[in-house]
Amino acid sequence: MLPQTILSAAVCYIGFSNNCWRPKTLVIPPQPQTGAASYISKGSEGPWDGPKSSLINSTNFEWWYFDARSQNGDQGVAVWFMNSNPARFGLDLPASNWFIFHARFLDGEGIDVVVPAGKAIINSFGEGSTGLWQGSGSGWAGAKDLSKFTLTFDTAEARSAVRPARDSEADLMNIGGMGWAISVPAGRSIAHVTVGEKEVSFTDGRGYHDHNWGSSLPAWLNWYAVTAELGPIVWTAIEAYRGEQGGYFKNAHLTVNGKVILASFDENSVAIRPWGNGTQYPPTGFEPQPLGITITFDAGSEGKYEFNLTNHGTSPNLPIGKGLAKWFGKVEGGKVGGEHYRGGGMFEWLDLAI
């Protein structure tokens, strides 16, 4: 196990969570370590976007996720910086530090690339962090107050710079053995990405960033995660199916003009259903791919909200668990009986059963 190194103390910074954290550097070796891991489970215990696991062994995991898309959802990029035994996700890779890169182009085509790396070097300062996955030419740099993130890629498959910035409140959730910190529920983004002869390019897009870690992956047979921004409305919706005996895990977070209208884990708070190509719910496999989804929120006394997301193109099947798919697309909708808006969103499907 390579040691965690504490760098020289900096001037106290009153940051995102009103905490003062000294700069630290954590070096994670490219192979699983022995021993039991301990975890940070509260925002008061360490930097908001800093590492939450003391080490990465053969069973636990940690990752940082970012995406950036055009306003109308016709192009976008997403990346997962992973610290985990790849066999936990059904992958055969030579290293436990790796990342997933996804790009969606204007013509509707998509590409997924999984890249193994050497050491992962993560620096934390204030509430922010930077990460470098050595040997992959890829990483991120976040401001100490979480106001800006810059992502860079320099591989044979992709060369890019993506910059999402936080412009609304973040949230933290813990789900069984998994921790979840959302640093950028909605932000402005700029992207210039070249993959072969194609590119993703926009200057007034939208971005999202979260961070997960833990000792065990939830036993979800079907995971739908959707984020969108249209007019004054920003929302995140998650619906995970646990099987006939397990019921559902759901999370709904909806704001209008910056005001939180709904923040709930109640099973009745949100419903996400696929449409097109004869798709069923729950899905029975990666195919057929839906053409889009409907999302319904029940905000109680604040009313009901309904949205429709139309996928832009099809998604490659990344063999994470039984499958991982990512779409960007156009979103329409609003409050039932009220004004409707148009914008863009992201839709992710995952089956974690292996």
TrEMBL record:
Residues 54-213 form the Diels-Alderase N-terminal domain. Pfam families: AsqO_C (PF25581), DA_N (PF24137). InterPro entries: AsqO/PenF-like_C, DA_N. Residues 221-350 form the AsqO/PenF-like C-terminal domain. Transmembrane segments: none annotated. This is AttH domain-containing protein. It comes from Fusarium albosuccineum.
